[in-house]
Here is the input.
Amino acid sequence: MVVMKQARHPEPDEMTLIEVMAALSDPIRVGLARVLADGRERGWGELRAPVAKSTLSHHLRVLRDAGVTRTRQEGTRCFVKLRRSDLDARFPGLLNAVLTAAHSDDVGDRVGLTDKPSAG
Here is the structure.
């Protein structure tokens, strides 16, 4: 039997402003937040970014460790979702401000979704 390590997600009261802002200080990570802002859970394979897969994995881990996203593993597939309600409860208005400014300034606009869903 193979035991898979489950990712640790900080509780909302463990999230810090510094860690969340640091996680959102990179254009790729802001782009990922923009893609996930629709509230849908996405398989990692659906995400498209102008970086190597290992670098994309790093960016997703930074977002998860800061509490910006939640990662769920199902077999060999990984899925990610924006933790909007937790972020809004902990830091009211922050995520909307970041996403609005990112949209206005085209920050993260090179991140998107693949044309068709794939295994996460």
Observations:
- The mean pLDDT is 92.
- Helices lie at 17-23, 27-36, 53-66, 84-90, 94-105.
- The chain has five helices and five strands.
